[in-house]
Amino acid sequence: MKIDKIFKNNEEWVQQKLTLDKDYFKNLSKGQDPDILYIGCSDSRVTAEELMGVAPGDAFVHRNIANMVPNTDLSAMSVIDYAVVYLKVKHIVVCGHYYCGGVKAAMESADLGILNPWLRNIRDVYRIHKDELNAITDEDAKYKRLVELNVQEQCINVIKTAEVQSAYIDRGIKVHGWVFDVHSGKLIDLKIDFAKVMEDVMEIYRLKK
Question: Is residue 127 among the annotated active site residues?
Fold first, then answer.
């Protein structure tokens, strides 16, 4: 796509919005009050707002390679802190997708340079669940299952944070694990038992208020 085309697209988008509501951007500039924090993959095929069918202002979005939530990543931790403490979102979604390049790379033994430390987090997910994954003989099925397990483990990483623990106690915030199927376009709810995970996590990771 040519860069000039993007600015043309923007002009058309602005006019479409103003035709529907002349105060659209005036209202948009007043601030944000999203209900959802969406943590997804940077993959260009997976656009958060479009796949959820939401408008600007409806979701606070953080994206990185393979939708990771490492506790050492200041970017992810800062996003969670801001969304939970200041925006007071009601839901946190971790959304992976099948045929994720980051997950595929983590399944291979190649040295990928600067990506190695990041992919090590996904390889740790494989290590935790290696018995289940190694029992899957179909490589495509194994690949998809690792995508799902990675979402599950990143949800647990979200729940480990002090901000989410406090928000769960104070106002019942919820964490969801989803997978986007790029073949069908459908969102799949992994139906993670949030209350059970919270109970298990709190036994070890509980932080006193």
Answer: no
